[in-house]
Every structure is written in structure tokens, then in C-alpha cells.
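Title: Request for sanity check on Glutaredoxin prediction

Description:
We are preparing a figure and want to confirm that the structure record we downloaded matches what your pipeline produces today. Could someone re-run it with the sequence below and paste the raw C-alpha cells into this thread? We only need the C-alpha cell string, no images.
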Amino acid sequence: MATIEIYTTPTCPYCHAAKAMLNEKGADYTEITVLDPQLRDAMTERAKGRRTVPQIFIGATHVGGYDDMAALDRQGGLDPLLAQ
């Protein structure tokens, strides 16, 4: 299984939806809460300027946010990425 990191905030509904989708797929992930400004800055740099949460990384691939991950899943691309 690929290494999955998801940057979140506690009250973000898209973060909860993204985690629920990953849980449904049985994927283990590391959640990084970006309430600390340094962690948010690190996320923004890694996500090439995107400041919104969630930001999802699967292996070396920056998937983007929840909508991006859901679109990737509908296209059949998420499961192969998770299986890396």
C-alpha cells in the first residue's frame, strides 16, 4: 500500500469526507492537522501554493483536495494509486 498523508483541520467537512472515503477503501493514512501556521506553510509549499484543506498526497503523487480525489475515484484511478 502507498503512503498516504492528508492535511486537515478539525472542522473541515471536506476533510471528513476525504477521510471517510479512505476509510471505506481500507487505506491507512497519516493525518496532519494544520492549525499550526508552520504546518500550514509546509503544506502550502508542498501543495505548490494551495492553501485549502484537505490536501492529499498518495506516495509521490499530490492528488489535491477531496473533489480531486473523488473525481480520480470515479475515473478508476484512485484504487491503482492506493495499491502502489
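Thanks, this matches our download. The chain has a mean pLDDT of 97.
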